[in-house]
Amino acid sequence: MIIFVGRSNVGKSTLIFRLTGKWVKRGKRPGVTRKPVEINWRGKLVVDMPGFGFMSGVPKRVQERVKDEIVHFIENNAEGIELAVLVVDGKAAPEIIERWEKRGEIPIDVEFYQFLRELGIPVIVAVNKMDKIRNIQKTINFLAEKFGVPYVEVPETFIPISAKFGKNLLELRKLMEKKLGEGRKRPSTETESENLENDVGDGLLDAVE
Ligand SMILES: Nc1nc2c(ncn2[C@@H]2O[C@H](COP(=O)(O)OP(=O)(O)OP(=O)(O)O)[C@@H](O)[C@H]2O)c(=O)[nH]1
C-alpha cells in the first residue's frame, strides 16, 4: 500500500491524478472532510488520505477528529504501508511551520513525518507547487532541518514537484520505485546508520544512471 498524506489543499488529489490517471476527489470544495479514498494502481493499493490541519470553515473539533482518524488508519495499517508520500505546499509550509513553532507547538507536517518514520515507514516528501517557490533548495534545506532529516538523506527524501504543471513527476516516480525496491527498514536510528553506507551507494549509482 502507498499512502498520500498532507495538509488540506496541498495538492494530493491533483498529484495522484497526475501519477495514476485516476481522479480520487470526492468533495467539490477544497478542505472538505472525507474518508481515505483507495484506488488500485499497477497492482498496488494507493490511498489518498483526508487533508489534515486547518480547513477553512471546518470547526477545530472536526479537524482534530480527522487527524485522529488518519493517525489510527496509519497505525492500524502500518505493516502494510510500503511507502508514504507526504505532500507539502512548498510555498506555504515554511511560513506555517514557523508560525506553529512561535506558538510553541510542533508543526503538524513535522509531527506526521516523524510519526511515519517512527513506524518504520519509508517517506518521500513531495514539495509541491514548486512553480510558486523562488529558492527551491533553500526551501528544501529549511524543511529538512525542521523534519530532522540527515544531510545525506535529503536527496532521497525531498523532491520538488508541481502536480498542476506536471513538473518533476518522472523523477518522483523513479524515487518512489527506488524506495519501494529498498523495502522497509527497521524503525530504529541504529538501523538507519547501519544502512547509511548502502543508501549513499545507491544514490550515487542512480546519479550515474
Ligand atoms: N500553483 C499550483 N497549484 C497547485 C499545484 N498542485 C495543486 N494545485 C492546486 O491546489 C489546489 C488543491 O489541490 P488538491 O489536489 O485538491 O489538494 P488536496 O491536497 O487533495 O486537498 P484536500 O482534498 O483538501 O486534502 C487546487 O486548486 C490545485 O489546482 C501546483 O503544483 N501548483
Summarize the structure.
About 45% of the residues lie in helices and about 15% in strands.
- Distance N to C terminus: 27 Å
Q: What general outline do the C-alpha atoms trace? A: globular
For the residues shown, what is the average pLDDT? 86
CATH superfamily: P-loop containing nucleotide triphosphate hydrolases
CATH architecture: 3-Layer(aba) Sandwich
CATH fold annotation? Rossmann fold
Share in helix: 40-55%
List segments where confidence is low: pLDDT < 50 over at least 5 consecutive residues. 195-209
- Which structural class do the helices and strands define? alpha/beta
Radius of gyration: 16 Å
Q: How many E-type strands?
A: 6
Distinct small molecules bound, one entry per kind: guanosine-5'-triphosphate
> Order of SSEs, N→C?
EHEEHEHHEHHEHH
In DSSP terms (H or I, runs of 4 or more residues), the helix count works out at 8
The proportion of strand residues reads 5-15%
Can you list the strand order of the major beta sheet? 2-3-1-4-5-6
Family: Belongs to the TRAFAC class TrmE-Era-EngA-EngB-Septin-like GTPase superfamily. EngB GTPase family.
Function: Necessary for normal cell division and for the maintenance of normal septation.
Region (Disordered): 181-209
Cofactor: Mg(2+)
Structure description:
- With about 210 residues, the chain is of the alpha/beta class.
- It has a single domain (about 1-209), classed as P-loop containing nucleotide triphosphate hydrolases (Rossmann fold).
- The protein contains 8 helices and 6 strands, in the order E-H-E-E-H-E-H-H-E-H-H-E-H-H.
- The protein has helices at about 10-20, 60-75, 95-100, 110-120, 135-145, 155, 170-180, 190-209; strands at about 1-5, 35-40, 45-50, 85-90, 125-130, 160.
- The relative contact order is 0.14.
- The structure holds guanosine-5'-triphosphate.
- Guanosine-5'-triphosphate binds near residues 13, 14, 30, 129 and 162.
- Keywords: Cell cycle, Cell division, GTP-binding, Magnesium, Metal-binding, Nucleotide-binding, Septation.
- Its cofactor is Mg(2+).
- Necessary for normal cell division and for the maintenance of normal septation.
